[in-house]
Write a structure and sequence with these properties.
Helices cover 78% and strands 0% of the residues. The chain has 269 residues and is mainly α. 40% of the residues are buried.
């Protein structure tokens, strides 16, 4: 029988690989939990959210220089830095409000593998469509988008509350349709992930505090470290790849995983 430590490593890899790619980390984790038959275990449900902290810290590590420069600007009167921070908070606001209001309903009715698989396939089709568009980017710096654009990207992020849609995919597509260049769209998706994922982490940690124990600490630590290391490797590779090649690879990844998932579900697995 597979040990909890091995499950933690595998789920940590899944989280680290998929969190910042437009393929849906939540969807992949839900399918992995079903594969491991962990669906009714409250600890593993919380584990999937808690190890996101590793992915968050990966972004903080990779962008430490830029984030530190922005943080210094907040206290030195740098208007551009203040405007960007406001922009991130504005983009985060829709998800915070809708998540607080409808989070229970979403988890109760939409967090199932059928929804995940259909969402993966539809999202893949959208990425293929985006790659075919002849877009004319206007913004090549994620820190200088107009404030209304930040808000619209925030609403696009809310679509990703449907498991399988992908938070990064929704924000990247939204930003590109609003005039952002691919790399800038991806980088803003990373920046927006920091408050969004941190908020989800704190909220779930508070809700699941009764289900966690000291014995779970080692398992969570394993998943955290694995997701951190994996996310660093993936983010560094993703930016260069998507700038040169677009989203076709990730679109077909989604379609294949979603189709195989539907076949498995139809066969009773």
């Amino acid at each position: 029988m597979m040990s909890d430590a091995i499950r933690a490593v595998i789920l940590g890899v899944v989280e680290g690989v998929t969190e910042f790619l437009p393929v849906s980390s939540t969807g992949h984790l839900l399918l992995a939990e079903r594969f491991f038959d962990l669906g009714e275990d409250s600890f593993w449900k919380s584990f999937a959210v808690l190890i996101q902290l590793g992915a968050i810290l990966a972004i903080l590590a990779l962008y430490f220089g830029r984030l530190w420069h922005i943080a210094q600007g907040l206290f030195s009167g740098n208007l551009a830095a203040r405007r960007f921070v406001i922009g991130v908070l504005v983009a985060f606001l829709p998800a915070a409000i809708i998540g607080a209001a409808a989070g229970g309903y979403i988890k109760s009715y939409l967090f199932n593998p059928w929804v995940v698989c259909f969402s993966l396939i539809v999202g893949g089709a959208i990425l293929l469509w985006i790659d075919q568009l002849d877009l004319d980017p206007v913004y090549d710096d994620a820190t200088t988008f107009p404030l209304p654009m930040y808000l619209k990207i925030g609403f696009a992020q809310c679509v990703a509350m449907i498991p399988g849609v992908s938070r990064s995919g929704a924000t990247i597509v939204g930003a590109m349709l609003l005039g952002a260049e691919k790399r800038a769209a991806a980088e803003f998706s990373f920046f927006l992930a920091i408050p969004t994922m941190a908020g989800a982490f704190v909220y779930d940690l508070y809700k699941s505090r009764a289900d966690l124990s000291v014995d779970h600490g080692t398992i969570i630590a394993i998943g955290f470290v694995v997701s951190f290391i994996t996310a660093i490797v993936v983010v560094k590779a993703f930016l260069g790849y998507v700038t040169r090649h677009g989203f076709t690879l990730f679109a077909w990844w989604r379609v294949v995983v979603g189709t195989l998932g539907l076949i498995a579900l139809a066969l009773g697995y």
